[in-house]
Amino acid sequence: MLNSPQALIKQHWQISLLVLLFLPLFMRLGFWQLDRASEKQQELTVYQQRQDLPALPLKALSNSEIVKYRTLELEGIYDANHYWLLDNQPRDGKTGYEVIMPLVSDAGVILINRGWVEASPRRENLPKIETPAGQVTIKGYLNTGQKNAIFDKTLSDLTIDWPKRVLQVNLAEAAALIAKMDNTQVLLSDTSLMLRIDSSSPGAFLTEWPLINTKPEKHKGYAVQWFAMALALLALYIWFLYHSGKKEVVLKK
User: Fold this and answer.
1) How far is the C-alpha of 103 from the C-alpha of 97, rounded, in Å?
2) Are 168 and 105 in contact, with CB atoms under 8 Å apart?
3) In Å, how far are 194, 197, 215, 220 from 223, measured between CA atoms?
4) d(Cα 48, Cα 26) in Å, to the nearest integer?
C-alpha cells in the first residue's frame, strides 16, 4: 500500500520546501506580467485617444489640458545656445543622443525634444546641431522625461559650458534655468512634461519614439511561460511523490 501523501511530503521535505517556495513565486510573476500587460494596453489606449484630438494652440492651453500625450501647436524661437544632449540613446544598433532644446514663446519657455542624432565614434566629439533661425511653428505631443535608475538630477559629464551631455534631464530645473537666462516664465514646470516634436516640424531630427518598451502581447506571453513553469513544477512534484511511494512499496516487498 502506498504511503499517504502527507507522509511522502514529510519524508521528502527538502523537495517539498523548494516546491513551496518556487510555485507561488512562478504564479506571482505570471500575474505580475498580466498586470503589466494591462497597464501597457491602457497606456496605448490613452495615447491613441489623445492623439486623435486636434492640436491645441499653446495660448489656449488650460491646466485641465496639461496632460501626457496631448498634441500642441506653438510658435517660438529656439534657444540654440543652450541645450542638452541626452546620452545613451541607441537606435538601430547605433549610439546617439536626443536633443533637448528650449523654445521661447510669447507665453514662456518650454523644452522641446527635437529627436535623435547619431553620436561620433570619438566620445569627445559632440554632434553639430543645426537649428532653424527666427520664429518657427511646431507641433508635438506632451510627454514625461525619461527616468534614469541612477541619476535623478540634471548631470553633465562635460564642463558648465553648453551644450551639456547628460544622462537625464530634470525638466523643472532645466526649464527654470532657461527661463532665468531668457528672462521669461516657465511653462509646464509643475507637470515635468516636455514636447516631443512632430517629424514634420522645423528643426525635427529622427523622431519615431517607441511609446512603450514592451508590447502587451509580449507581457502576456511571459505570463503564459511563468504559469506553464508553475504547472510543470507541480506536475513533476506529484509525479515524483507518486513514484517515490511506489518504489518504497516494491522495496518493502
Assistant:
1) 19
2) no
3) 34, 35, 13, 5
4) 33
Cα–Cα distance, 5 to 173 (Å, whole number)? 64
In terms of C-beta density within 10 A (0-12 exposed, 13-18 middle, 19 or more buried), how is residue 101 classed? Answer: buried
Per the CB < 8 A criterion, the answer to whether 184 and 108 are in contact is yes
8 Å CB contact between 34 and 223 = yes
- Tell me: the pLDDT tens digits for 36-92? 999 888 888 877 877 777 777 766 665 555 677 888 888 999 999 889 999 988 888
Of all residues in the chain, what percent are helix, strand and coil, respectively (each to 5)? 40, 20, 40
Query: The pTM is what?
Result: 0.70
Q: What is the pLDDT of residues 170-179, one digit of tens each?
A: 777 777 777 7
Q: Are the beta carbons of 103 and 31 closer than 8 angstroms?
A: no
- Report DSSP letters for 96-151, one per residue: EEEEEEEEE-SS-EEEEEEEEEEPPSSTT-PPP-----S-EEEEEEEEEPPP-SS-
Is the Cβ–Cβ distance between 163 and 129 less than 8 Å?
Answer: yes
